[in-house]
Batch of 2 targets.
Target 1
Amino acid sequence: MDLATTIELVRTAIAESEGILPSAELQIAEDQIREALWRHELVGGHTVVALVGGTGSGKSSLFNLLTHSQLGEVGVLRPTTRRPAACTWGTPSPELLDHLGIEGEDRIVRDRALTHGYEQELEGLVLLDLPDQDSVEVDHAGVVDRLVPLVDLLIWMVDPQKYADHVLHERYLGPLAARADAMVVVINHADALSPENLARVQQDVRRILDDGRLAHSSVLTMSVATGEGLDGVRARIGEAVASGSSADATALAQVAGVANWLGRRIGEAEPDLTPESIAPTVEALVRASGTDAVAESIERSLSRLTGSPLATAEPPARAAVAAIGSGWAGHAKHGLPKPWDREVDRALPSVETLTEAVGVAVGTVRQPVNRIRAADHLLMGAGAAFLVGLVVLLVGSIAGWPAAAYLIVALLLLGGAGFLAWRSTVVRSEEADRIAREYSAEARENVGAAVAEVLVAPTRDVLRRHRMIREALTKARG
Ligand SMILES: Nc1nc2c(ncn2[C@@H]2O[C@H](COP(=O)(O)OP(=O)(O)O)[C@@H](O)[C@H]2O)c(=O)[nH]1
Ligand SMILES: [Mg+2]
């Protein structure tokens, strides 16, 4: 993935972490991103190769040789190079040259179109001739500090007469130890030594590098005067150009470092908030608020003709709510690391708030009226049948019916009235049962709504942020 997209994703993760991770740490993360971006823009596809070393080692001579110029101030005319010079192959980056402190007159360009014998294989190369490392007049610390994070290859020029002093210079060795493979030591003035002496010096330099934790740096020999070994140095520079700017890789690595740091502060997944995972909490709160007892009293009361007082729902006991609430919190932060579990706790309501919400939820369930019409009608029907029977019997006695007719009418009426009375108790009990169940269902629904509002919604908010960060980082690191 390209740097810009990666940075965008990591920045999303940083923004979503605000208020959860310490702001000072997020600031450091943001600073690193900005630095990576800046470095990326600054270098913009260039490969930076710098010539460093002590006075007279031949930096300027080699610079002139490689750039086919006289820009490098060679020792005979002026003893030391005080200002850095640069040659760019292709299109130069003014920001980069500004940053490296190279002044306008110290910049040259080997232009693709205008330069005869333009080295296409060096396209993008920025070759720097740096001030002598042993010059007391130059602010070396400033130059090196700016150079080290940007340089793709450091060519350390060594005069065999004074190599020990030069190579051991701490200012360069220290910061470069981690980038030993980006450094090559070139023993120049090879023409001034016998082959045996040259080999001995090379061995000696090798040993010094190994002691200085620079075992990965290679050692070449050359002579600017005779051109011996020049091809080897050119090839090494070509390799650096071919393998591309390490600034991009460095920038990506820096952003990846931030992504990894953020990644260590989140969990691998969010706890799920499915209806099945929420139901036990609702059920426990319903139970704790005693609505079962209310439903039972409703059933008992309504199924009787005379009725009995209905129980009322009470807010649940604080201790029970505390236990249920912490059970939910445990589920909500399952698998989340430190700052996130605290964030879940912070988002969740206090025991008092939860108790009150559940109390209101069960308190607002409407209480049924103690009157069941269908059963009442049946009972009234039984009474009416009984009255009608009495009237018929009275009429019959006046009209002088036979005894058998009395008996039939009396049995029919008694049977009808009895049946209606029996039906009324069945209907009453069925209705009472239904109403009690309706009450329970409504209580559950209200408590469910309260749980959704005060427990699930705040949890969901925190977990949504966690998921956004996790997904952004997964993409950034993918
Ligand atoms: N004999 C010989 N002289 C060299 C060689 N390289 C550079 N010189 C001379 O050494 C002196 C210092 O070279 P210069 O490039 O200014 O070194 P710098 O101080 O590192 O920039 C100059 O007189 C160069 O001509 C070389 O390989 N052999
Ligand atoms: Mg010089």
Note: The two ends are 8 Å apart (CA to CA).
Target 2
Amino acid sequence: MKVAFGHMGTLTPIMELILEDLGHQSITPTRPTRQTLARGAKYAPEFACIPFKIVLGTYLEGLERGADTLASGGGYGPCRAGLYGELHRRILKDLGYNFEFIFFWPPLKKPLHFYRQLKKLKGNNSWLKVMRTIKKAYGKLTILDELEMMAQQVRPLEIKKGSTSRAFAEALQIMWKAKTTAEIATAGEEARAILKDVPIDPARPSPLKVGIIGEIYVQLEPFANFYLEEMLGQMGVEVRRSIYLAGYTHHDVLSTKGDKGSRRLAMPYLGQKVGGHGQNSVGDIIRYAKMGYDGVVQLAPFSCIPEIVAKSIVPRLSKEYGIPVLTLFIDEQTGATGVQTRLEAFVDMMAQRRSRDLSLGVLNHKTSFFPRAISKA
Ligand code: SF4
């Protein structure tokens, strides 16, 4: 089969690895562009959120490059995520494309359906081979998460602007090419060394720390969030996302419970699931506040109900936990310059708060800032 799929951060090389390992041709998507989004938006219903539009544009590109199959995974209500796979399929069929659609529900929610879909990808391979491929892919994903976290730590300290992003791109390419378990392990060592070699300024004061929370696609796909991690890093801010793919796979795909830590924290404020990562976003704000972060950026596709619900609780959380939160709603009209301006103002405000707290002696920045990760892996 010639299989295309949506682009979502570092999931892309993992999907390619799985497909090629199982003997399929991967029609690997390139990073989405404004053109991809414009094409998706043209055929998507107006109410659809931006991840839907970007992914639709990516499918169109894949089908035009010769894909005969589309592979996708989807959430499970109560927000619109549960409907999006079927909606994508119908829109593309109405446009005249002929393709097989392999759509994965979370395996523990609909195990039989998941099994049937996986069987299509399995082809003539044994189940043992499929399991080995998945295990290998998970190992690679874990290293990619680690590399992302390293880049997020190094970037605010880099001496030459852009050097971390270049190093990360090089490290990603090395990881991308690694196909066997042994190659992945060697590539991981090489990739870590590249990021460790980025020249940093050790005299720089402890950088501001910001947690990134919100809907999964706009967190993980840099095109969808205007390369916000790089923007913040180059403003001297260390970021840590609430979602990394290996952790997400562990908590949300291979388990029905989700990230219990965040959900438990959210309970007094939002006692039920509202779809997407809405409840997690509430808990994640508290988690970052308890970890001594300087602020939180909430990323939300415009009209995303789960994040709108979370946003309605933000003022209370911000006040009770003393942490500033910036919410960025994103749609196809949003521009990079507007995002940059709002981030600059937010960073200025956090820097002033930090120096005020230091001068009042209520903050010891050497001990109050946390460890380097809250990875949920
Ligand atoms: S979580 Fe938000 S952005 Fe994602 S499908 Fe649901 S409503 Fe849309």
Note: The pocket of iron/sulfur cluster is lined by residues 49, 51, 79-81, 215, 275-276, 301, 304-306 (CB under 6 Å).
